[in-house]
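Deliverable D4.2, example record:
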Amino acid sequence: MVSVNTDHAGPDDLAALRAAFPDGEPLGWDAVRAFEAEHGIVLPEPYRTFVAEICDGSCTGPPDFGLEPLAELPDDWGDGRPERVPAQPFPLTEPWVWEDDPRPEEEIEALLGPVYDHGSIVLGTDGCGMYWHLVVTGPHRGHIWNISGEGAAPFGAEFGHTTAEAGFAGWVRHWAGGKPWYDK
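Output generated by the structure prediction step:
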């Protein structure tokens, strides 16, 4: 797995993010630090600097229905779901198509909660139960994952199905370039 730099925001990444969201409303460093303290995490770069200095959510993508503000969830997330726990490690390190998994449904259901609710923040939705997550804890910290009703997969050229760079900046660059998510 290609490592994404989650500790330092590179100037090229920040320039690309500013270009993609020129009219963004940033959250500010105090609010970012308060969110991190409340949830027991440190957001991975360059997303951390993006939210603090460039843009905290946008009605334009990515994804198709817009980029969610840091502390919010998409409208179609649903009520009555378990509380999200970003400080718990994200449980996956490889794609998982649970609709094809031969295990009993009860066993799969028990494993799904952490996939949706642990170790990530939800960046937004493309509709139809397809959500984009930024992993904030665990081995895939800094990577983007697509989680849908059928399964979950990491985003980036190293994982297949796309020519995009891994990580938040690569995900935004790919979208800003007008490319379909899965262009391979």
